[in-house]
TrEMBL record:
It catalyses: Release of an N-terminal amino acid, Xaa-|-Yaa- from a peptide, amide or arylamide. Xaa is preferably Ala, but may be most amino acids including Pro (slow action). When a terminal hydrophobic residue is followed by a prolyl residue, the two may be released as an intact Xaa-Pro dipeptide. PANTHER family: PUROMYCIN-SENSITIVE AMINOPEPTIDASE. Keywords: Aminopeptidase, Hydrolase, Metal-binding, Metalloprotease, Protease, Zinc. Residues 856-867 have a biased composition (Basic and acidic residues). The keyword rRNA processing does not apply. It is an enzyme of class 3 (hydrolase). This is Aminopeptidase N. Its cofactor is Zn(2+). GO terms for biological process: proteolysis. Residues 548-866 form the Peptidase M1 alanyl aminopeptidase C-terminal domain. Aminopeptidase N is involved in the degradation of intracellular peptides generated by protein breakdown during normal growth as well as in response to nutrient starvation. Residues 441-543 form the Peptidase M1 alanyl aminopeptidase Ig-like fold domain.
Length: 867
């Protein structure tokens, strides 16, 4: 069944207030609801009431005090006929959280009960108008056995609690803010609580609480601190103050994604909230801080102002990712953050845009909304918000955001509403810009240059185009902000005098046409063009540059993002040429740029490590823009890595040793940068086969007092050590940390991503006592680890594909959402050449041919096969 944006209409009834009683018993849970409803005044007559409900066992249904005897419940819809325009709909139903392995609705996570309702999970808890434009105040009472479940939580403020018969107890929570059902949450468990408080800008004291299972109690401090930093930042940067008196976070071991912004009661994947230096790497700290911020920021961008329908998902997700990225830049290093975000977009979102699941930031239709929690909605959506900021400037953007929050507070809004606020405060006409919301695919901008020494004129010609995407063959020109500078041979920026729409203050040139030629006057020498600085638009850029030009940008561009980008372009272009020519000699240009980066003491260690890292296989696949011979690609990249390693063997060794530090561990940008660079230099050093490198790596692993160093040492051993050493260290790791869930997940992931891992090893991991196929984190560690392990997943005999297809079928019966995510690894079969593409397609076909597929998996597989 296809849901279409064009068919959106308001519901026939609204729900004003929702009263729930959730009675948890061993083996079943009973849910009583009382929904205060009123007919939508814009609707004629007295339409039938159609409520969503999945796997509900009906005990009683009432309109006010009258039992409903006439109803129809089929295909997840309950149809009843109201007799008045205002009424209370009451239902008593039973559900089965213990056997709910989809992890949507109410389910059991280890020893605790918790919920996940976004997008359409609330209908697994009770009958409801489960759509985001239906907003109600909620009161939730939870009843459960007191000894097993001393902690009972729901959204809002606690208003009552007490004892019941048979050792049971209850707690009642009230949320005064209207919200859609997807923001509902409830938790029952035996949890420890860590308290803190935050005083808001207006002087209100907010009680902050993190709940975790007792064995994780020592891992909550970092998230609490991150939360306080987020609260402060949102006040300062966006003028957003927290509203309830209490803010809670619960860590859950069974969780489909990172975390969920339920009003006042965020529920997190344990892996996205629990941290300490012993078990969490720098990357993990940064990710946790960003997710805590992301969910917190949703309190305004998502909860106070929510989405009218799921086509507007990017309204909250794109904006909130934009906000959390900005937060991370402010907390740490803005350039590093930008480089990583741009690299991620190119590596993961560009392929989505050129594959079967390409969709606009505001999709026109979907079958299963869970399949649309994508990098396009989230990360490209954030880029689109970022371009709005670039076009109107920081101050007006803030004014627009203030207006948006004020005007739509308590409402369900659309992306058009958001853009209209930006337009209103700035006077900028966003009509054409809005194609970024409706047009799928990545624009390509081809640039060419011409210098006329006599006229002292320099010309840049831009031509933009876009390939068709499924269901969208016609593409129109986009508004593309090009942040730029012209440089002289010393890398200094020239004053710009040109005949185009160039903003002197922001240094942004705006393209709106398919073809644009810009003439720059008074240019006394051939300049170097530094274009798309800071990745000012999510586009592919084709700009043929000479070696001299590339080298200048790679060594002298003052925009650190572009300098990084020029270095990467050298690697990428060279690798592509090697693949096409079948010649795996690394040219001197690459070694020159490595030498220059190594020698440049002005570069921070973090930037240096980013510059010295070769592009990933995934990025290479996308950059090739032709049928990919995966074997040739692996051979070329490995050859280049070898050659860089061997050419600078002494430097890698020396740098690795010099980056060793006695400083006490702290997670901060400076230390993390140092450790990241050391990991990189060590990996090149170990690649040379030098025994001293392996000794160093082993010692790093053994003597580390923090997870980052430990993993850096271990990874170097895994990639280059003898089988005996590898298995020694892996055994040691498991012995020491098998009781720590996050460490076990890491242990599984390390093995699945290790060089040369075989399907037999993956199978063995899935048989290991530490594995649990109902636990998404464990499944992701092993299977996503394998699928991202390019050389193993794409192994020469193609056996990786069928193996994954069979796992998808197996998982689909347990957890469709998680299973559907893995289809992504087969969906771009078309980019590969020959037999490989056929093998991937066959694997997809075997999923399609298997019985009883979920809508989640079916939608993705069908689209991939039709591509
Ligand atoms: N809103 C959550 C977040 O981004 C994610 C919810 C994902 N839901 C899903 N069905 N995949 O913060
Ligand atoms: Zn989000």
């Amino acid at each position: 069944r296809i849901i279409r944006l064009a068919e959106y209409k308001e519901p026939d009834y609204w729900i004003k207030n929702t009263q729930l009683v959730i009675r948890i018993f061993d083996g079943y849970t009973e849910v009583s609801s009382e929904l205060t409803m009123v007919k939508n005044a814009r609707v004629d007559g007295l339409p039938t009431l159609v409520l969503d409900g999945v796997e509900q066992t009906i005990k009683q249904l009432h309109f006010d005090d009258t039992e409903i005897s006439q109803y129809q419940y089929s295909d997840d819809k309950l149809t009843v006929q109201p007799v008045a325009e205002e009424f209370i709909f009451k239902a008593v139903t039973r559900i089965d959280p213990e056997n709910n392995t989809s992890l949507e609705g109410l389910y059991k996570s280890g020893s605790m009960y918790c919920t996940q309702c976004e997008a359409e999970g609330f209908r697994k808890i009770t009958f409801y108008l489960d759509r985001p434009d239906v907003m109600a105040t909620f009161t939730t009472r939870i009843e459960a056995d007191k000894a097993s479940f001393p902690t009972l939580l729901a959204n809002g403020n606690p208003i009552d609690e007490g004892e019941l018969e048979n050792g049971r107890h209850f707690a009642t929570w009230q949320d005064p803010f209207v919200k859609p059902a997807y923001l509902f949450a409830a938790v029952a468990g035996d949890l420890v609580r860590k308290d803190d408080s935050f005083t808001t800008c207006s002087g209100r004291e907010i009680s902050l609480r993190i709940f975790a299972e007792p064995r994780n109690a020592h891992k909550t401090d970092f998230a609490l601190d991150s939360l306080k930093r987020s609260m402060k930042w949102d006040e300062k940067r966006y003028g957003r103050e927290y509203d309830l008196d209490i803010f809670m976070i619960v860590a859950s071991d069974f969780f489909n994604m990172g975390a969920m912004e339920n009003k006042g009661l965020n529920i997190f994947n344990s892996a996205a909230v629990l941290a300490n230096q012993e078990t969490s790497s720098d990357d993990r700290f940064e990710r946790i801080e960003a997710i805590v911020a992301h969910e917190y920021f949703h309190n305004w961008s998502g909860n106070r102002v929510t989405c009218r329908d799921w086509f507007q998902l990017s309204l909250k997700e794109g904006f909130t990712v934009y906000r959390d990225a900005h937060f991370t830049s402010d907390m740490h290093d803005a350039t590093v953050k930008r480089i990583k975000d741009a690299r991620f977009l190119k590596t993961v979102q560009f392929p989505e845009d050129s594959g079967p699941n390409a969709h606009p930031v505001k999709p026109q239709e979907y079958q299963e909304i869970n399949n649309f929690y994508t990098v396009t909605i989230y990360e490209k959506g954030a880029e689109v918000v970022g371009m709005i900021n670039t076009l109107i400037g920081e101050d007006l953007f803030r004014k627009g955001s203030d207006l948006y929050f004020e005007r739509f507070d308590g409402c369900a809004a659309t992306t058009d509403d958001f853009v209209a606020c930006m337009q209103e405060v700035s006077g900028y006409d966003f009509t054409q810009f809005k194609r970024w919301y409706t047009q799928a695919g990545t624009p390509t901008v081809v640039v060419s240059q011409h210098y006329d020494a006599e006229q002292q004129q320099y010309q840049l010609s831009f031509s933009q185009s876009q390939k068709p995407t499924p269901g969208q063959s016609e593409k129109l020109p986009m508004v593309i902000p090009v942040k730029m500078a012209l440089l002289n041979a010393q890398g200094d920026e020239l004053a710009i005098d040109c005949d185009a729409d160039f903003n002197q203050q922001t240094q942004v040139l705006t393209l709106t046409e398919a073809q644009t030629t810009v003439t720059f006057s008074g240019v006394s020498e051939q300049p170097y063009a530094s274009l798309f600085r800071d990745f000012s638009a999510p586009v592919r850029v084709e700009f043929e540059l000479s070696e001299a030009e590339l080298l200048l940008l790679a060594s002298k561009d003052k925009n650190a993002y572009n300098r990084f980008d020029a270095v990467q372009k050298i690697y990428l272009d060279t690798l592509i040429a090697m693949i096409k020519n079948g010649d795996n000699q690394t040219p001197s240009l690459v070694l020159d740029v490595v030498r220059a980066s190594l020698a440049d003491n002005a570069l921070s260690p973090a930037i240096k490590s980013l510059m010295l890292a070769l592009p990933s296989y995934q990025l290479l696949v996308d950059s090739l823009q032709q049928k990919v011979d995966a074997d040739a690609l692996v051979a070329a990249r490995q050859a280049m890595k070898q050659s860089i390693a061997n050419s600078f063997k002494a430097e890698w060794a020396e740098l690795t040793l010099s980056l060793q530090s006695e400083q006490a561990y702290q997670f901060n940008a400076e230390q993390a940068g140092r450790r990241e660079l050391q990991a990189l230099t060590l990996s090149y050093w170990a690649e040379t086969g030098d025994a001293a490198a392996l000794d160093f790596a082993k010692a790093l692993y053994q003597q580390a007092n923090n997870q980052t160093d430990r993993l850096n040492g271990l990874k170097a051993v895994l990639d280059n050590g003898s089988d005996a050493l590898v298995s020694d260290l892996l055994d040691d790791f498991y012995q020491r940390w098998h009781e720590d869930t996050q460490m076990v997940e890491t242990w599984l992931l390390l093995q699945a991503s290790a060089k040369g891992v075989t399907i037999d090893t993956i199978k063995a991991l899935m048989q290991h006592e530490a594995f649990d196929i109902t636990n998404p984190n464990k499944v992701r560690s092993v299977l996503a680890g394998f699928m991202n392990n390019f050389t193993s997943y794409h192994q020469k005999d193609f056996s990786g594909y069928d193996f994954i297809a069979q796992r998808i079928i197996q998982l689909d019966a347990i957890n469709p959402q998680v299973a559907a995510r893995f289809v992504t690894a087969l969906e771009n079969w078309k980019v590969f050449s020959g037999q490989r593409a056929e093998a991937m397609k066959q694997a997809l076909q075997s999923i399609a041919d298997s019985q009883g597929r979920s809508p989640d998996v079916s939608e993705k597989v069908e689209k991939a096969l039709a591509h």
